[in-house]
Automatic annotation (TrEMBL):
Domain of life per record: Bacteria
Domain Cytosol aminopeptidase, chain residue ranges per copy: 308-315
Keyword Heme appears in the UniProt entry: no
Keywords recorded for this protein, A-Z: Aminopeptidase, Hydrolase, Manganese, Protease
Protein name from the UniProt record: M17 family metallopeptidase
Record PANTHER family: LEUCINE AMINOPEPTIDASE-RELATED (PTHR11963), PEPTIDASE B (PTHR11963:SF20)
Family, similarity comment: Belongs to the peptidase M17 family.
Source organism per UniProt: Pseudohalocynthiibacter aestuariivivens
């Protein structure tokens, strides 16, 4: 379902966005019939509240949308998207009340509110359409919405229809769309090409494990994205309980986010060289599943003691990160639905990330605030390094005790990155547990818009 502005429509209904503390003054400037109508309907300009105002003929002459107070706006984002869902059928344009980043947020939120996942059931389209506001880069916003829709579609699709084969098909289609090159290493060839941990995690499934590798661009600094593509995670022999296994179709959310971001980068033609790596596996249970207490030797040569087969994401990422790091990219980013500890720490709405480079951190934090894509920095806390060193092997994939689980997972991944000057790891959730403005319940992109906005500063392009 394309997320586009209604630029072909010749007529549209003006939308006036009004802050609550300015509502009385705005109302005093309006014709008496407008003030009377809004008074009778009880409109108070709360954030996202909307009201259609009829003209003398009975047709709507305007829509008024509340922007609330600074305090109420701080308690959420994409408030105007609530109006997009509530207003009746028609084409609208934002006539007043918003400028700059706030106008851009409103326009993008309106687009994202029209997203529907309709693969298995016909969904009613959004009735209210928006003309691209003057002063925003409409084409860029449409590209961002397309990338977000790709991420959501991939996460929302159940594992029955989104296993490693299907993820590979989407990967190749994206490469073809953007004239990028792609290579696939699968099955026992993973061992021949020295990806032993990707093979170990995926070998128990009858859906062949693989590593997906895409390249795009010939000039500029190099950016490599590594996305966790565990298409379903049973937990392996350390089988997940029913309370934890229900949402595991989203365990490839890191890959989905990386592909959505890659689509944005390539569609916008950023001057950089892009590489995308996705280890695509299913963590299943069978007679040849990898076991607790096994010791695996990684691509990098580091040995890893397996103390929980449900901590498999860091294993497949480690081999992919080692490959990426061999090329010494200017910036290396991993994205994964990696730990429950991250969810406990910051909840589902924030995207925790780990980074040591101050330039990366500064650019990302500024960008996240600018585009309303919240992130939260977590520490690569080196004093915890001993927690991931079991003694019998170089590394432990699941330290005992449960403390600092997100940090120890990030430290584990950092062991496989030595040559990349800017490395960041995002431990995202990838799921909207309850519907919110511009974000229906289900799969969701996190941190991708912030990264996209920050890239020109991070890579100096």
């Amino acid at each position: 379902m394309p997320l586009k502005f209604a630029n072909g429509d010749t007529s549209s209904i003006p939308v006036h966005v009004v802050k609550k503390d300015a509502f009385k003054g705005w109302l005093a400037s309006q014709p008496e019939e407008v003030a009377s109508w809004l008074g009778r309907t009880g409109f108070e300009a709360e954030a996202g509240e909307s009201q259609l105002v009829p003209g003398a003929s009975g047709n709507p002459q305007m829509a008024v949308v509340g922007y609330g107070t600074a305090k109420s706006r701080a308690r959420g984002r994409f408030h105007i998207a609530r109006a997009a869902r509530a207003l009746p059928k028609g084409t609208y344009h934002i006539a007043s009340g918003l400028i700059g980043p706030a106008l851009e947020e409103a326009a993008l939120g309106w687009l994202l509110a029209s997203y529907r996942f309709d693969r298995y059931r016909k969904q009613k389209p959004q009735k209210a359409r928006l003309k691209a506001p003057k002063g925003v880069d409409a084409a860029r916003l449409e590209v961002i919405a397309e990338g977000e829709a790709l991420t959501r579609d991939l996460i929302n699709t159940p594992a029955s229809d989104m296993g490693p084969d299907e993820l590979e098909s989407v990967f190749l289609a994206l490469a073809d769309q953007h004239s990028a090159s792609a290579a696939i290493i699968s099955g026992d060839d993973l061992l021949k090409h020295n990806f032993p941990m990707i093979h170990a995690v995926g070998r128990a499934s009858d859906r062949t494990p693989r590593l997906l590798d895409m390249r795009w661009g010939t000039a500029g600094p190099m950016l490599t994205l590594v996305g966790k593509g565990v298409c379903f995670d049973t937990g392996g022999l350390n089988l997940k309980p029913s309370s934890s296994i229900g949402l595991m179709k989203k365990d490839m959310g890191g890959a989905a986010a990386a592909l959505g971001l890659a689509h944005m980068i390539m569609s916008l033609g950023l001057r950089l060289r892009l590489r995308v790596l996705v280890p695509a596996v299913e963590n299943s249970v069978s007679g040849n599943a990898f076991r607790p207490q096994d010791i695996l030797t990684s691509r990098k040569g580091l040995t890893v003691e397996i103390n929980n087969t449900d901590a498999e994401g860091r294993l497949v990422l480690a081999d992919a990160l080692a490959l990426a790091d061999e090329e010494k990219p200017d910036c290396l980013i991993s994205m994964a639905t990696l730990t429950g500890a991250a969810r406990v720490a910051v909840g589902p709405d924030l995207a925790p990330y780990f980074a040591d480079d101050s330039g990366f951190v500064g650019a990302l934090e500024a960008a996240a605030a600018q585009v309303c894509d919240p992130v939260w920095r977590m520490p690569f806390w080196s004093p915890y390094e001993n927690l991931i060193e079991p003694g019998i092997a170089d590394l432990d994939n699941a330290p005992k005790g449960g403390f600092a689980g997100a940090i120890t997972a990030a430290l584990f991944l950092r062991r496989f990155v030595e040559n990349s000057p800017k490395y960041a790891h995002f431990d995202i959730y990838g799921w909207q547990p309850t519907a919110a403005p511009a974000r229906p319940k289900g799969g969701v992109g996190q941190a991708t818009r912030a990264i996209l906005e920050a890239l020109p500063s991070i890579l100096e392009i």
